[in-house]
Amino acid sequence: MHIVYIDESGFALDWQASIQNQPFYVLAAIAIPVINLHTMYQNVRQGISDLNLPGINARLIGLGQEMKAKDLDSGSGYWRDHEEHRIAVRDLMLSVPKNCSGCAFLVIVDKANHLRRYAYPDEPDILALKFLFERLQGFLEEGNSFAICVFDRNKREEVLLTTAQDLISLGSRISYWSPFYETYVEKILPLNRILEFHTEDSRYSIGLQVADFYARVTYSRRKNDKRPDYPGWALIREQLYTRDGKVTGWGYKEFPEGELNNELDF
Predict the structure, then answer these.
(1) What pLDDT was estimated at residue 105?
(2) What CATH code would you report for 2-255?
(3) pLDDT at position 260, please?
């Protein structure tokens, strides 16, 4: 059994009008075995406590106290003059999956390309949730596991809850090329390994705060032309779900896919 914590970066209510300022939508998820949740909470709180950060009560992380990935990633406020602490906190949060026998998933929607390619483009957050669920299903099937998903609460909460409910109950319609039939075929992919989907305030969840770091760092790295040396990316890369030796298409999905969107490029 897994708990999957999900957060986003690059969200905008009017996504088409805000493409210039928010060119990408990133959905990040970390999957943690239930048996290791206590370890996750202990590791994060102890790691923060060891740093003696001013104004931070480590015992309250996930109980109303929050480490904001945006502040660390931008280097604002306290982090501007305390680079050593900034790196330590970022690495602590990004290392959570591997330290708890978990893994991570990333879905990125290039909004401008999405809008250009489709006459009636889907909302990026809805599209990304569908792609994420499909990959979670494969991961859970491989490990003969099930999951409860928790999403950071936002202004589209009701839409996301309805979308998740439909996907879980009805499955996801997918289209793929069949070498046997030499044409594209459609089928319904069951999403029966995902048992529940909830929303929660990230101030009260260490898991959601970790997912926030994954979403924010990935978003910033994507805006910086996929810099391979973007701070924190190497840690994220090694923890993405891999299947049959591949990350792209499993732990990492970028849409729309293009000629440069391959295993070497991501």
Answers:
(1) 98
(2) 3.30.420
(3) 44
The full set of domain ranges for the chain reads 2-255
Q: Residues of the chain whose pLDDT is less than 50?
A: 259-264
CA–CA distances in Å: residue 200 to residues 8, 93, 158, 189, 259: 13, 19, 12, 27, 38
Contact between 242 and 250 under an 8 Å Cβ cutoff? The reply is yes
Residues 6+ apart with CB under 8 A from 27: 6, 7, 8, 106, 107, 108, 125, 128, 129, 131, 132, 215
Cα 206 from Cα 7, distance rounded (Å): 12
Pairing label, strands 2-9, 24-33: antiparallel
Q: Of 243, 236, 240, nearest to 251 (Cα)?
A: 240
DSSP state of 9: E
Q: What angle do CA 74, 103, 227 make, to 5 degrees?
A: 40
Please give the model's pTM, rounded to 2 decimal places.
0.94
